[in-house]
Amino acid sequence: MERLITVPARSRHGRPWPGLVLGLLWLLGLGVSHAATPLNGAWREVRTDDTAQTVLDEYRAGLLKNFDPSLLQQFPRSSTGSWVVIAPQPPWNNDERVLTIYPPPMGTVTVLGTGETQSLALDDFSETLHGHGRLAWRVPATQAASALILLRFEPNLMLSAPVRFQIQTWSEYLRQDARWLVFASACFAVMLAMVLMALCFALMLRDVAYAWYAGYILCYTLIQGIQTGFMFHPLEWSWLSGVALMAGPAAVALSVAFASLFMMRFCELQRHAPLLRVPIMALAVGMIQLVLMRCSHIALLVEVAQILLNPLLMIGAVLLLVAAIVAVARGSRQAWFFLIGWTPLLLLTASTSAQVSGALPQLDWLNDASLAGGAFEAIVLSLGLADRALILRHDRDIVRVLADRDALTNVLNRRAWTERASALLASGSPQPIALLFLDLDHFKLLNDRQGHNTGDRALVAVAKALAAELRPSDLLGRYGGEEFVALLDGAMPQQAMHVAIRLCRRVHRLEIPVSDEPLLLSVSIGVAIRREGDDVESLVERADQAMYDAKLNGRNRVCLHEETVSPNAPASSRLHVVEKRE
Ligand SMILES: Nc1nc2c(ncn2[C@@H]2O[C@H](COP(=O)(O)OP(=O)(O)OP(=O)(O)O)[C@@H](O)[C@H]2O)c(=O)[nH]1
């Protein structure tokens, strides 16, 4: 990623995660060195009075600096550029050949062959051969296989990453090119799919963490798209060539800003590492400011932004890693996902930075690892986001249960019971529905004599007994202090009376141990049957009236609302006294 900024490092904001990437690269044959013509190489910086001939003469005289073209080699950023001589070694093969430069440098490379001069650049959209994920030059058929190839790396604002050179046969070149295209397309497809998914989730769940994640992965995709040249070839986005210089570093800075905002929310730093939120927030704001400075077109601001970008990037990467480690240590489950996706970033950044100073020249696959790393990280973080959604759903379920249940007795509270009873009445079921209104007798006396705690224990015992006596489909709730309600779906008056009598008996049989003596409870129950046009309120009102009748008639009994009973029916059919316990 840093290739997009003008500092000497080619590190990516990507993630090294050796196992999977190596496996993937191996599968695609990208990391395997292919049969290619052995090459010698030499280079030196361009001087003003140079001609192609003088450089070649100097090469033959052994005056240029030698290097191995099959290993990564960096040419320093200079105001004049660098000459590079590639000398194919025997056995020579005069078949159709292609010279490739990998990874593709951001600037222009001029080839001064024996024929005409040709410019190679990512943002060259002419009809000539381009190569995908690398620069390619088709060696003219007229050029002898042993002929020297002279290249000039033109001066460029962006730093050239270390590159390696290969001369391959046409068929070998095509095979490798196709493999790279499949590999890169798969990685970009994965990243973009995750971005789309995250955007949908952000809109549907109204959770901004998904939006930050989408922004982060999108910026990373853009960085990789420019850096690997995928957006130039095969996508042929010619409009990008003018803005790549600006868009690249802006995407780098924005990706860190989005990553910081995402990380703070995703790893719940507010809970697990509140102090670290301040520097991470400062990092996000600072990165956004760098983007604005770069876009300002004020030379001084652009220069300052360029100088600050790389150090801030490094500090930011370490800061996010430390924050994730702290969050993991303090119990954040999500921080694990972040660590798995992010930790390899530092290894890759360190490795690619080391390559700039000449280390690890054989690890040219680190470049493709950054691309695959982006896809891998997108998947890991998406799994993390799915896990987060699961936890949020679980928390919501718990909250819902807590909100619907009465804290003391654990039966439905009045609001939840009313909601469900209304839904049942509104369902239009033709079945009869009975409502039982239960009020404990002389509960105030019990409270006054035995204390509030004993009263509470009695309420819990009663609720348990009622729940045990009723069917699971009956709707039991606590309506008020010592009042309970039960809605029986499909119960005729007689059945409702039977159930109510059973409940009355059961409550009276309860024994609440108080001191050494058991405490005897009793309950008065009013029963009402749903009539046409009833709502919960009217049904409860009639059951309540019936309950008062039961109280007035001596308590510990069940009373059916009078309108439910025909005028000629004996009084005993509406009032049932439960035998008293001594
Ligand atoms: N321990 C306890 N008592 C409660 C709770 N909610 C209400 N109460 C008490 O229940 C009592 C209800 O008293 P009243 O409405 O006068 O009725 P009662 O004493 O049962 O008399 P009758 O209903 O006429 O038999 C009051 O003393 C309330 O303080 C509770 O959650 N726990």
3D structure, described in words:
It holds the Pfam family GGDEF. The chain crosses the membrane at residues 180-203, 210-233, 239-263, 275-302, 308-329, 336-357, 369-386. By secondary structure, the protein is an alpha+beta fold. It folds into 3 domains: 18-175, Immunoglobulin-like; 177-402, Up-down Bundle (Rhopdopsin 7-helix transmembrane proteins); 414-577, Alpha-Beta Plaits (2-Layer Sandwich). The protein has 15 helices and 17 strands. The protein has a 6-stranded antiparallel beta sheet, with helices on one face. A 6-stranded mixed beta sheet has the order 11-12-10-15-16-17, sandwiched between helices. The structure holds guanosine-5'-triphosphate.
Structural class: alpha+beta
Gap between N and C termini: 87 Å
Q: What count of helical segments does DSSP give?
A: 15
Q: What CATH architecture label of the largest domain applies?
A: Up-down Bundle
Write down how many β-strands occur, each being a DSSP E stretch of 2 or more residues. Answer: 17
Please tag this protein with its features:
582 residues, alpha+beta, Immunoglobulin-like, Rhopdopsin 7-helix transmembrane proteins, Alpha-Beta Plaits, six-stranded antiparallel sheet, 15 helices, 50% helix, rod-shaped, binds guanosine-5'-triphosphate, transmembrane
